[in-house]
Amino acid sequence: MSLERVTITIPSETLDAVKSAAEREDLSVSAWLSRAAEHAAKIEAGLAAAEEAMAYVDPPTPDEQAWVDDFMNRVTQPTPTPTAEQSQGAA
Protein backbone atom coordinates (compact mmCIF):
# COMPACT_ATOMS: atom_id res chain seq x y z
CA MET A 1 0.00 0.00 0.00
CA SER A 2 1.39 3.38 -0.93
CA LEU A 3 0.94 6.36 1.33
CA GLU A 4 0.40 9.97 0.32
CA ARG A 5 0.78 13.08 2.39
CA VAL A 6 -2.23 15.41 2.35
CA THR A 7 -3.10 18.63 4.11
CA ILE A 8 -6.56 18.90 5.64
CA THR A 9 -8.35 21.57 7.60
CA ILE A 10 -10.76 20.54 10.36
CA PRO A 11 -12.25 22.35 13.34
CA SER A 12 -9.92 22.43 16.35
CA GLU A 13 -12.58 20.74 18.52
CA THR A 14 -12.72 17.86 16.04
CA LEU A 15 -8.93 17.57 16.02
CA ASP A 16 -8.89 17.48 19.82
CA ALA A 17 -11.44 14.65 19.78
CA VAL A 18 -9.44 12.78 17.13
CA LYS A 19 -6.23 13.14 19.12
CA SER A 20 -7.94 11.79 22.23
CA ALA A 21 -9.49 8.87 20.35
CA ALA A 22 -6.20 8.03 18.65
CA GLU A 23 -4.35 8.12 21.95
CA ARG A 24 -6.91 5.82 23.60
CA GLU A 25 -6.40 3.32 20.79
CA ASP A 26 -2.62 3.77 20.75
CA LEU A 27 -2.72 4.96 17.14
CA SER A 28 -1.20 7.95 15.42
CA VAL A 29 -3.60 10.68 14.38
CA SER A 30 -2.83 9.77 10.75
CA ALA A 31 -3.64 6.09 11.31
CA TRP A 32 -6.84 6.93 13.19
CA LEU A 33 -8.03 9.35 10.50
CA SER A 34 -7.08 6.92 7.74
CA ARG A 35 -9.13 4.17 9.38
CA ALA A 36 -12.08 6.52 9.92
CA ALA A 37 -11.95 7.71 6.30
CA GLU A 38 -11.77 4.13 5.01
CA HIS A 39 -14.79 3.19 7.14
CA ALA A 40 -16.78 6.21 5.90
CA ALA A 41 -15.85 5.45 2.28
CA LYS A 42 -17.09 1.86 2.66
CA ILE A 43 -20.39 3.09 4.10
CA GLU A 44 -20.80 5.55 1.22
CA ALA A 45 -20.01 2.83 -1.33
CA GLY A 46 -22.57 0.53 0.29
CA LEU A 47 -25.22 3.25 0.25
CA ALA A 48 -24.49 3.98 -3.42
CA ALA A 49 -24.76 0.27 -4.28
CA ALA A 50 -28.05 -0.02 -2.38
CA GLU A 51 -29.41 3.04 -4.17
CA GLU A 52 -28.41 1.55 -7.52
CA ALA A 53 -30.03 -1.79 -6.64
CA MET A 54 -33.24 -0.05 -5.60
CA ALA A 55 -33.63 1.19 -9.18
CA TYR A 56 -34.41 -2.42 -10.16
CA VAL A 57 -37.15 -3.17 -7.64
CA ASP A 58 -40.66 -1.88 -7.24
CA PRO A 59 -41.30 0.49 -4.35
CA PRO A 60 -42.75 -1.16 -1.24
CA THR A 61 -46.49 -1.32 -0.76
CA PRO A 62 -47.89 0.76 2.12
CA ASP A 63 -48.15 -2.43 4.25
CA GLU A 64 -44.55 -3.41 3.47
CA GLN A 65 -43.32 0.10 4.26
CA ALA A 66 -45.26 0.11 7.54
CA TRP A 67 -43.63 -3.22 8.49
CA VAL A 68 -40.15 -1.86 7.70
CA ASP A 69 -40.81 1.37 9.62
CA ASP A 70 -42.07 -0.57 12.64
CA PHE A 71 -39.09 -2.94 12.54
CA MET A 72 -36.57 -0.11 12.25
CA ASN A 73 -38.20 1.75 15.13
CA ARG A 74 -38.00 -1.35 17.32
CA VAL A 75 -34.37 -2.16 16.57
CA THR A 76 -33.04 1.39 16.73
CA GLN A 77 -34.75 2.53 19.94
CA PRO A 78 -32.89 1.94 23.19
CA THR A 79 -34.31 -0.72 25.45
CA PRO A 80 -35.85 0.91 28.51
CA THR A 81 -33.89 0.24 31.69
CA PRO A 82 -36.16 -1.07 34.47
CA THR A 83 -36.49 1.22 37.46
CA ALA A 84 -35.57 -0.04 40.92
CA GLU A 85 -39.27 -0.42 41.75
CA GLN A 86 -39.92 -2.49 38.61
CA SER A 87 -36.92 -4.70 39.39
CA GLN A 88 -38.10 -5.32 42.96
CA GLY A 89 -41.61 -6.14 41.76
CA ALA A 90 -40.24 -8.87 39.49
CA ALA A 91 -38.35 -10.54 42.34
Q: How does the major sheet shape up?
A: none
C-alpha end-to-end distance: 58 Å
Q: Counting H and I runs of at least 4 residues, what is the number of helices?
A: 4
**Mean pLDDT reading:** 91
Tell me, what's the shape? flat
> Taking Cα atoms only, what radius of gyration do you get, to the nearest Å?
22 Å
Overall SS class: mainly alpha
What series of H and E elements makes up the topology? HHHH
Work out the number of β strands.
Answer: 0
Chain-wise SSE layout:
Elements: H1 12-24, H2 29-54, H3 62-76, H4 84-90
Description:
The model has no long low-confidence stretch (mean pLDDT 91). The chain has 91 residues and is an all-alpha fold. The N and C termini lie far apart (58 Å). It contains four helices and no strands.
Q: What is the gist of this entry?
A:
By secondary structure, the protein is mostly helical. It contains 4 helices and no strands.
Features:
single chain; 91 residues; mainly alpha
